[in-house]
């Protein structure tokens, strides 16, 4: 099973995640979500995989979040999805997932959950 890796090339955590997958020989496909923004159906899929919904996906520290003066408590999900399509910088990065697992942000311990994918294939 191939892991999907959504990145921004200028993001250090994205580069770390890519290097980790390469180092552990775990197959992945990579997509720069700034150059190739996600479509609404892709964002909805990610939202369904999260434990805490938009809270897990949205970077409240992003400059665009402040600029847009977003309030996650009052904005509708459809409005937020539209904004993410228009402003992919709203998303935390990297986003890594397969059919069963989702990880947002690079964490040396948490990313190890993807090792099972390659171990099970051996």
Automatic annotation (TrEMBL):
| Record PANTHER family | ARSENATE REDUCTASE, GLOBAL TRANSCRIPTIONAL REGULATOR SPX
Query: What's in the keyword line of the UniProt record?
Result: Disulfide bond, Redox-active center
Can you name the source organism? Answer: Lactiplantibacillus pentosus
Q: Which CDD domains match?
A: ArsC_Spx
Protein name listed in UniProt: Spx/MgsR family RNA polymerase-binding regulatory protein
In the record, what lineage is assigned to the organism producing the protein? Bacteria, Bacillati, Bacillota, Bacilli, Lactobacillales
Similarity remark: Belongs to the ArsC family.
Q: Does the keyword Metal-binding apply?
A: no
């Amino acid at each position: 099973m191939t892991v999907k890796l959504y990145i921004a090339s200028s993001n250090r955590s994205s580069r770390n995640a890519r290097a980790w997958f390469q180092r552990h020989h775990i197959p992945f496909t990579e997509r720069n979500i700034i150059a190739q923004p996600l479509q609404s159906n892709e964002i909805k899929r990610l939202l369904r995989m999260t434990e805490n919904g938009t809270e897990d996906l949205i970077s409240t520290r992003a400059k665009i979040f402040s600029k847009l003066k977003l309030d996650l408590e009052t904005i509708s999900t459809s409005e937020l999805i539209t904004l993410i399509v228009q402003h992919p910088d709203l998303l935390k990065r990297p986003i890594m997932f397969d059919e069963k697992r989702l990880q947002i942000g690079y964490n040396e311990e948490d990313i190890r959950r993807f090792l099972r994918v390659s171990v099970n294939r051996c």
